[in-house]
Amino acid sequence: MKVPFKQLVADNVRYLKRRLFPPVFKALCIRAICFYQRKLSRHTCLYEPSCSEYTKRCINNFGAFVGILLGLWRILRCNPLSKGGIDPAPEVIWKRRWLI
User: Fold this and answer.
1) Residue 29 host element (H or E)
2) Which residues contact 80 (CB under 8 A, 6 or more apart)?
3) Are 62 and 100 in contact (CB under 8 A)?
4) Handedness of CA 59, 62, 68, 74 (dihedral sign)
5) Could you give the C-alpha distances from 21 to 5, 8, 9, 34, 65, in angstroms and in order?
6) 3-state class percentages of the chain: helix first, strand second, coil last, to nearest 5
């Protein structure tokens, strides 16, 4: 039985969107944060772990979109008027996938 070419392409595009693009975008975001930590950061965050490390962990645990939102919320909380301290990144216990 021959599968139409259009159907074959549509199935492959759906597969690539689900399996390839999210991990690639996730890895790209994490690599960009690693570059920032090595080359541009001044290491002056009030919190432990730093805001960039927190964002990197959130991206790894929750995906790029939710991780970036959690990181932005943390950056908004990190200001001179905050107390700082220990604030670990939330983790999904049953789903741990490290890219690097």
Assistant:
1) helix 21-35
2) none
3) no
4) negative
5) 22, 19, 16, 20, 13
6) 60, 5, 35
21-35 helix and 51-62 helix, angle to the nearest 10 degrees? 170
pLDDT by residue, tens only, the chain of 100 residues: 566 777 767 777 777 666 766 788 899 999 999 999 999 998 888 899 999 999 999 998 888 999 999 999 999 998 888 888 999 998 876 665 555 5
The answer to whether residues 89 and 49 touch, using CB atoms and an 8 Å cutoff, is yes
Pick the closest to residue 50 from 61, 62, 38 (CA basis).
Answer: 38
The residue behind tokens 């002056």 is 44
Could you tell me how far CA 15 lies from the centroid of its own chain? 21
Q: What is the pTM of this model?
A: 0.74
